[in-house]
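BUG: 3D viewer hangs when loading the predicted structure for this chain

Environment: internal workstation, default settings.
Expected: structure renders.
Actual: progress bar stalls at 90%.

Input used:
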Amino acid sequence: MRRSVGILASLVLCACQTSWQKYPMSLYEALKEETPQAISAHHALLADLYDKALARGANPKAGIAAEYAYYSWMLGKRALAKQALEVERSSYPESAKFCQLLERYAEGIRPIADPSSAEGGEQ
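Structure tokens produced before the viewer hung:
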């Protein structure tokens, strides 16, 4: 009986992880695998962090909007990427140089197929 309760408690705790708690493993998988599925999953997690911050009227944590922009470019979502970089730039003016470098780098990114959308193209 105790063992069943312990296993159930562990499952509940795992299910209650926040996006921030999932972030390190998500980033690790995206960098390790570099598959459309891993990249799309990490992009979705970043979207959650980014959107929740904006919905609260707060700035996303430093670097999150820039990372979201990068993964958006990888999925061919250029308009979304540019918008996220603008949020990063306006939220953290000291990141302007980095954002400029990221934009230059992004010109050479060849988008991968996004498994979560049929098109995976411009958005």
